[in-house]
Amino acid sequence: MNTELGSYDAIVVGSGVNGLACAALLAQAGRHVCVLERSDWLGGAIKTAEITQPGFHHDVFSAWHPLWVGGPAHARLGDGLARHGLEYLNTEHPTATLYPDGEAAFLLRTADANAAELDRLQQGDGGAWRTMLDAFFPNADLAFGVLGTELWSRHGAALALRAYRRLGRQGAAQFGAGLLISARDWLTETFASERAHGLLAPWVLHTGLGPDAAASGYMAAVIAVAVQEGGMPVPRGGGARLADALVSFIREQGGTCETEAEVTHVITRDGRAAGVELRNGDVLRAPIVVCNVTPTQLYGRLLGNVPPGLAEQARRFRYGRSEMQIHFALSEPPAWEGDERLAQTAIVHLTPGLDGVSRAVNEAERGLLPAEATVVVGQPLTMDPSRAPAGRGLLWIQLQELPWHVKGDAAGELDAGDGTWTESLRERYADRIQARLARHVPNLERAVLGRTVLSPADLEAANVNLVHGDPYGGSLALDQNFLWRPLHGAPGHRTFVEGVWHVGASTHPGPGLGAGSGTIVADAILEPPAPKRLATKLASLARR
Ligand SMILES: Cc1cc2nc3c(=O)[nH]c(=O)nc-3n(C[C@H](O)[C@H](O)[C@H](O)COP(=O)(O)OP(=O)(O)OC[C@H]3O[C@@H](n4cnc5c(N)ncnc54)[C@H](O)[C@@H]3O)c2cc1C
């Protein structure tokens, strides 16, 4: 027999950053909320744990919080979360690219520093950087607005109207075209130096794209400006401090957050949300259910009576490239060869450059292990020494160009076996990456105290939203991005069931810790109904 466990104003299914931020904003506004999480931790792709050696606190999945700190949820919750122990640390050396010949290029924290760095690489590129910033800043509200607005709503229409009024017809068309340009086209048109191209090209991988994909140029420009202005903040003590603070804030406002509570079904009555049923048969009631899940799960499992066309679209939703994480505990800090700033840099990309990233993406998309992957080397100790015992080293390594089904090895070295991510394939591929890194960090091999590798299969097993080990909740190809995310038949965050909302990386504005979709949905839930909005507007006009 089902047990009725209580009723709430809103239930959130899944405790990813979007689910938690949505719940926290609703709780802040006085709503009685309940977050239900199937795993044994809260935070989804946010987790900090000692997974190599005792005393080494690794961010198992996500680690870098510029999107959260620069995002709308932080602006409204930041003070409250600080009361719950969340503190951000930052750096003057957010990122660099290290090339095979040992030369490195750096993205720094001021326009002057970046112009000087780019001029160092090639005279004239510093001026190109300033010209780019001069063009970007006057319309930054539009560029960031695309990523912070429910596009299919009166807010989206208002944003388009603002662009049209400010820029005129031609200017608005030009702005729109700028949203669609590839990183290759934008970088090669803007900067002369291949080093400059290689500095920014790897960043499009962090948006789920490749440098030849539509819209990757816009994402590269947005990230370049965001990193200059915002740096590479991380929470003191580990990324999980963000999830901990959100949970503690929600509980302080009277809300509930439960682990090991898997929702199997959204209950509806008369076409409206009425609650959820858990795997053990327990039932919780609420007129609003926010689902922090993939479209595959939402329309294939949680909701019943899905219109056939929509069910088919959800079934065809495409997941993006797979990824791998490698975590190192080191007996001493990595001793980088070459530019001494590398030792202080939060994220170092190893790649031959724009063409190197493009080649590795292409190989992964053709089912191959890339011959020369883009290696993302994260160094959280540069900001937060508390993550490891004094005098030790810790590295967070991400590889974003991998296939789910491995057809072969572009380097012709590794046997792909039956194409699945076996333990042996995972460790041999990690060995190759470790050897690549050791060419630039000569003390690496002897300093390794512990190494833990998560293959795409391990990522999928850890979090049901990371389908095929895709860290970004589904391909961000243009037909699944912006106006079309997650599905062209159900774009945005409303669903065909009144009161059921969809948030998370699979929905606009996509992946990352910005909590964009959670914030958009909290605002939509809290927005007064249209007649009340009209009455408020009329009253304010009458007062003038
Ligand atoms: C390895 C990795 C590294 C990354 N690095 C960064 C980074 O450094 N910076 C950055 O900004 N972004 C990073 N990202 C991307 C970012 O972490 C994700 O886009 C973001 O965390 C996704 O949040 P989400 O709200 O979609 O939910 P998720 O984090 O996917 O969490 C959803 C939660 O819902 C739960 N759930 C699903 N179905 C149910 C159900 N039926 N019942 C109950 N619970 C359910 C899941 O168990 C999960 O805990 C990274 C991602 C990965 C995987």
Description:
The chain has 544 residues and is of the alpha/beta class. The protein contains 19 helices and 24 strands. The protein has a seven-stranded mixed sheet, sandwiched between helices. Strand 4 and strand 5 form a beta hairpin. The chain is globular. The mean pLDDT is 96. The structure holds flavin-adenine dinucleotide. Flavin-adenine dinucleotide binds next to helix 1.
Brief account:
With 544 residues, the protein is of the alpha/beta class. Helix content is 38%, strand content 18%.
Individual helix count: 19
Strand content: 15-25%
Rg from Cα: 23 Å
Structural class designation: alpha/beta
Hetero compounds: flavin-adenine dinucleotide
Shape: globular
Helix content: 25-40%
Main pleated-sheet profile: 7 strands, mixed
User: Reading side by side through the largest sheet, how are the strands ordered?
Assistant: 8-7-16-18-19-15-21
Low-pLDDT parts are: none
User: Termini separation (Å)?
Assistant: 60 Å
Any descriptors?
544 residues, alpha/beta, seven-stranded mixed β-sheet, five-stranded parallel β-sheet, 18% strand, binds flavin-adenine dinucleotide
Protein topology:
Blueprint: E1 4-7, E2 10-13, H1 17-28, E3 33-36, E4 48-49, E5 58-59, H2 66-69, H3 72-83, E6 88-89, E7 95-98, E8 104-107, H4 111-121, H5 125-136, H6 140-145, H7 154-180, H8 183-190, H9 194-200, H10 216-230, E9 234-235, H11 240-252, E10 256-258, E11 263-269, E12 272-278, E13 283-285, E14 289-291, H12 295-302, H13 308-315, E15 322-330, E16 347-350, H14 354-365, E17 368-369, E18 375-378, E19 393-402, E20 408-409, H15 423-438, H16 444-447, E21 448-454, H17 456-462, E22 486-487, E23 490-491, E24 500-502, H18 516-526, H19 530-543
Parallel strand pairs: 1-13, 2-3, 2-14, 3-10, 7-16, 14-24, 17-20
Antiparallel strand pairs: 4-5, 6-9, 7-8, 11-12, 12-13, 15-19, 15-21, 16-18, 18-19, 22-23
The structure holds flavin-adenine dinucleotide.
